[in-house]
Amino acid sequence: MKFNAKSIANELLKEKGYYIAENVFSKKDIKTARDSIIELAKSRSPSIDKKDALSVLSATNHVWNLIDKHEIFRKLVQHELVYDVFSIILGNEMKLGSFAARIQQPGDKAQLPHLDYPYWDMYNLKSFPININSSFIMNCQSNIMLDDYTEMNGATMVAPGTQLRGYFPKENEFWPNMIQTTGKAGSVMLMTGLLWHGAGANKTKTPRVGILGQYLPKFVKPMEDQLASVDMKVIKKGNKKLKDLLGVGYPYPKILDTTKTR
Fold first, then answer.
1. Cβ atoms of 100 and 67 closer than 8 Å
2. How many CB atoms lie within 10 A of CB 15?
C-alpha cells in the first residue's frame, strides 16, 4: 500500500494530530518482534528511585534499547513510511531518541494524559524557553501495534487537535475529547510529542504489546543514549540510514578549544 507522506505530515501537524496506517508490517515481522519482547521482558527490571521524575516511565512495563536486542528492531525502526513522514517534520538529519517496547499488562489502569520527551515535564514551564509553542515540532512518535489495539486492552488514548495547543494537558479538557486509536496488529500510529495522549486501561486478561519509536531533530539530545547503549558490532553492521538515526558521525558536541586537544 502506498502512502502520501506529505499528506500524513500535514495531518500530524495541522489536523487531528495522529494517523493510523494499517497493514504496514508483515505478520512474520510482528510475531518475531513480539516474541522477542516477551522473552526480554522476563528479565528482572532494574530498581527505580521513586523520587526520580523519570520513574513515570515505569521500567516494569518497558523494554529499552531494542536496537541492540534483535535484527527485527533494526528493520522496523527505519520503515520507509515512518522515515519519510517524520523527515518532513523533523528534517532529513533527524535522530532516534528511543526505540522501546511498551507492555500494557492485564489490569493496568489508564495513564494520565501527558506529552512525550522533550515536552514530558512541560508542566514546569520555568525549565523551558519562554514562549515555547507548537510552531515547530521537536518530537515525532511511532506506535507499532504488535497486538490488535482495542478499547478493551488499552489502545492509546488521544485528544485530537491538542498538538496545536502547546501546553501540558489539562484533564478537564482531555477527557471530554478523548478517543482511542484502535487498529490491527501490524498497523502503526504516528503522532507528534505535543499531542495529548496516554495508554488506555487494559481490561482483558492478556498483555497488549507495542513498540514506541521516538524521533527527534538533530539538535535535541536523545532520551536513550544510543551510541553508548547499542553494541559497536551492531553499529558497524548497520546500513547508512540506521547509523544516521543513531547519530553515528554527528560531530556535536565536540571540543573546539584546541588547548584541550593537546
1. no
2. 15
Sort 206 into a burial class: Cβ within 10 Å, 0-12 / 13-18 / 19+: exposed
Q: Give rounded-to-5 percent helix, strand, coil for the chain.
A: 30, 15, 50
Closest alpha carbon to 100 in 226, 24, 211: 211
| Cα–Cα distance measured from residue 58 to residue 194, given in angstroms and rounded to the nearest whole number | 21
Written as tens digits, the pLDDT of the chain (262 aa) is 689 999 999 999 999 999 999 999 999 999 999 999 999 888 755 554 544 433 333 445 889 999 999 999 999 999 999 999 999 999 999 999 999 999 999 999 999 999 999 999 999 999 999 999 999 999 999 999 999 999 999 999 999 999 999 999 999 999 999 999 999 999 999 999 999 999 999 999 999 999 999 999 999 999 999 999 999 999 999 999 999 999 999 998 888 888 866 5
Cα angle: 131, vertex 127, 102; to 5 degrees: 105
Q: What angle do helix axes 5-14 and 80-90 make, rounded to 10 degrees?
A: 50
